[in-house]
Write the structure tokens for this entry.
Amino acid sequence: MTGRNSTKPCVLNSIIPLLLQDINALEQHIKNLLSPATPYIFNTLYDPYREGADFVRGYPFSLREGVPTAISHGLWLNIPDYDAPTQMVKPLERNTRYVDAVMTIPKGTLYPMCGMNLAFDRALIGPAMYFGLMGEGQPIGRYDDMWAGWCSKVICDHLGLGVKTGLPYIYHSKASNPFTNLRKEYKGIFWQEEIIPFFQQLQLSKDSTTVIACYLELAEKVREGLGHIDPYFTKLADAMGTWIQCWQTLNPEFEK
């Protein structure tokens, strides 16, 4: 078997499809969402609620009930979810590492959320899962799921909800065009160097006690904190408010 960065065929490539036949991605996402998360202290046996695992020595008993899990984020095998520059310098790289683990992303830690292997609890975090104002006519693309991931994570942290990553894997067999991707991504590659610190330092007020209230407050902070980068962010803040208006119209049962 060759290493992960090798350009030679790997024996595992023929094993993975057989392995994936036994994986029920939907079932695993549901299991992740129905079991608690542990965002406050990292458990070194990963998800302590899985069969064969538990909390390790030194983990506080006061935190072992965990918190509700709002988001389940799965991973990719074979063609990785890379940005365009990484695609260009590693065109033949394949992810052949199957890690049988689920873990909670710690509070205060952001992550790059891919929307193609994802599940979320609509009742807990639905209003925050807006995939941004992107695509044709917009100055940025391929950051729609990233935007939803950053927004939803800071809201989960604020409201005491959990986000899990790991299983299930899906097998990704079609690589997108790196030159097309670069055209869509290049502003985002620069802008994320300011966007991510903005989210890392962001504090929501104690008065924001629902997802909708958090998201509307976040929209105004986007307008104030990112508007200097490009007028697009002012337009995006407006779109975030419009999204919530639409959500409330279609889902009147949600708390404001």
